[in-house]
Design brief:
This protein is mainly α and 71 residues long. The chain contains two helices and no strands. It has helices at 13-22, 44-49. The radius of gyration is 26 Å and the shape is elongated. The termini are far apart.
């Protein structure tokens, strides 16, 4: 399968999409991707929210200490 990227002007966008939607879609997949980039913020909260590690869940078993700790 091949990938073709088209940068289409607003004036012909409707015509191109009409054409793509009307050809046989047996071996075709049409995806619309907007190139609008989100504004990047320089604060620490935005950094951690956009981190690829934000979906990781860390879990641990509760630990009970029965020994006395002496210093």
């Amino acid at each position: 399968m091949y990938t073709i990227k088209l940068d289409v002007n607003d004036t012909i966008y409707d015509k191109v999409m009409f054409f793509l939607k009307n050809i046989p879609i047996k071996n075709l997949e049409v995806k619309k991707v907007d190139d609008i980039q989100t504004q990047k913020k320089d604060d620490i909260v935005s950094f951690f929210r956009s981190s690829p590690l934000s979906d990781i869940q860390l879990e641990r078993e509760p630990e009970l200490y029965s020994d006395r700790v002496t210093f």
